[in-house]
Design a protein that fits this description.
The complex is a heterodimer of chains A (about 110) and B (about 325). By secondary structure, chain A is of the alpha/beta class. Chain A is built from four helices and six strands, in the order E-H-H-E-H-E-E-E-H-E. Classes of the chains: A alpha/beta (about 110), B alpha/beta (about 325). Chains A and B meet through strand 1 of A and helix 7, helix 10, helix 11 and helix 12 of B.
Chain lengths: ~110, ~325
């Protein structure tokens, strides 16, 4: 059976924005951009325990994130964008000059 | 089709935030310009305004909204099309409406609210312009706002991302005629997003050098673009050491504009704001560094590509 595909959305958060201006080497920044948020039902279905590490794989690459339960609709994963999301994001711009920065289809598995 | 934030503050009694999370990403937007400010024609501030939020997830901005419409991911363009039909009392396909994840009654309510407004504004964010559909979504929203003017005053405005990206667009526009993705290789500007835009150039590996000014593509662009930056001579000008600095051949620390360097920032409604530095910096400004690089380049002998790269002394 093919693994379930989730829709991953990278966005901004206030804390991430603050950390960008403080410095991108801080452990706080690293913690923010390596944490994904999933729906509680999705976590159960995928057999992932909240607070553990997961491997996220998109058509373009893969990265390891810390997984938390969050207020997101089923089937959607939210993450604050940063260096790890660069590996997953769309690489073509569809002739617009803008890469697909949100809404990638990904697979998630526990590490 | 657009207006300044001053007009929004003084006139807008109805606003839609679409694919944006201003509570987190533009934290002063509500309080300074759009929602809670008391304006000339909105003397009661928040009470005189209605706010609708369209997003795929319930962000912290939903708390500020009167109406939150949770749309299914990737269905923005469809919803825009449906709204454009509804405002003109055209029939809509119910199956198409169901695909957006929103009931028709809600959309009809929204259209009634839009038409009842005296001054409506749609702020559209990157949830609209950076997902599937991209510029077609933005164009759809601009069309919707334009068509709403048959009923009442309506405008649309993008919620820009990083600080002063509007400034880069504005300056490129008045110097070359185009906002981004400009190629000057032939001695005159040519514009072609997808061909001359930064991400495309880097991912394809077309350029053999790169000057990065106050940006951090090393932490934001697709991985092949980052790999290419590391392959070629990259020069980064930034007040801080960034991910891009680490993969650059040269990092030049510059003064922070607005804090220790003067300059002009363009607000997202393209109003230029002069910046007065509060502090002194031991580092040169971006402008000074670029000027000195230009002067050094000008001192070099001219280069003729048609004569196989021969230097003219």
């Amino acid at each position: 059976m093919a693994a379930k595909r989730y829709l991953m959305n990278a966005g901004r958060t206030t804390k991430q924005g603050q950390q960008i201006n403080i410095g991108k080497d801080s452990p706080e920044y690293l913690a923010i951009v390596t944490t994904i948020f999933m729906n509680v039902d999705d976590l159960k279905e995928a057999g992932i325990t909240a607070g553990t590490d997961v491997r996220v794989r998109s058509d373009n690459g893969e990265a390891v994130f810390h997984c938390k339960e969050g207020k997101v609709p089923p089937g959607i994963i939210f993450v604050a964008y940063g260096p790890p999301t660069c590996k997953l994001m769309g690489q073509t711009t569809d002739g617009t000059g803008m890469p697909t920065s949100k809404g990638w289809e990904v697979e998630v598995e526990p590490v | 089709m657009t207006c300044t934030l001053g007009e929004v503050k003084n006139r807008a009694d109805f606003m839609i935030y679409w694919g944006g999370n201003p509570a987190e990403c533009h934290p002063r937007h509500f309080t300074k310009y759009s929602l809670t400010q008391k304006g000339k024609f909105t003397p009661n501030g928040r009470k005189d305004r209605t706010m609708v939020l369209v997003d795929i997830r319930e962000t912290p901005s939903a708390k500020a909204a009167d109406v939150f419409l949770q749309i299914r991911p990737g269905k923005d363009f469809e919803l825009i099309g449906i709204l454009r039909a509804l405002i003109k009392n055209q029939r809509v396909n119910e199956a198409m409406v169901a695909e957006t994840g929103l009931p028709l009654s809600k959309l009809e309510e929204l259209v009634a609210m839009m038409k009842a407004a005296r001054f409506g504004v749609i702020f559209f964010g990157m949830g609209l312009s950076m997902t599937r559909g991209k510029h077609m979504n933005s164009a759809g929203v601009l069309m919707l706002a334009a068509e709403m003017n048959a009923f009442t005053k309506f405008v649309a405005m993008p919620m820009r991302g990083h600080g002063n990206v509007t400034g880069a667009d504005v300056v490129m526009r008045y110097t070359t005629g185009y906002p981004f993705g400009v190629n000057l290789c032939r001695g005159y500007p040519r514009f072609n997003p997808g061909e001359f835009s930064t991400v495309d150039l880097l991912v394809r590996g077309d350029n053999d050098a790169c000057l990065v000014l106050g940006a951090d593509p090393g932490a934001t662009m697709p991985q092949p673009a980052i790999d290419h930056l590391a392959r070629i001579p990259t020069i980064t000008l930034d007040p801080k050491v960034t991910h891009t600095s680490r993969l650059s051949r040269v990092h030049i620390t510059t003064a922070a504009t607005g804090i220790s360097a003067p300059g002009t920032a363009y607000r997202m409604d393209e109003i230029p704001l002069p910046l007065r530095p509060a502090l002194k910096s031991p580092y040169p400004t971006d402008e000074e560094v670029v000027r000195r690089i230009r002067e050094a380049v000008a001192r070099r002998p001219a280069w003729l590509p048609e004569r196989n790269g021969e230097m003219v002394v």
